[in-house]
Amino acid sequence: MTEAAPLIAWLLVLAGLISGTLLGLFFRSEQFLGGYASFRRRLVRLGHVACIALGVLLLELSRLVAVETYVPEAVVEWFAAGALCMPAVCFLTAWREKFRFAFVVPVGLLVGPVLVLVSHLGVYGILGVRS
Hints:
With about 130 residues, the chain is mainly α. The protein is about 70% helix and about 0% strand.
């Protein structure tokens, strides 16, 4: 899975660019998805930005794991799963609001690996923290 992370990352960026382009075709309409400040429209914007942002973070994380031996490969795998789940949950919640309860899944899949990464960086003295 770690070898596939750069491909997944670039596919996420591509999905974010394509979805942003498609959404941009309709953003001029005041009533698109209930108006600019509507819950549905905010979730769709969040989903498209999450694709790009999490794709870039996944790409950088996969490069870090490839170079540094102190970072477990599972960090990349869990982060990739979260990066795929977050935009999906955003788009699903924009479609049906009851899916908002599913945000616990991508949040856990993203926060967990970051906590492991930060703890490893601290243990190895990279953050200037000695344990």
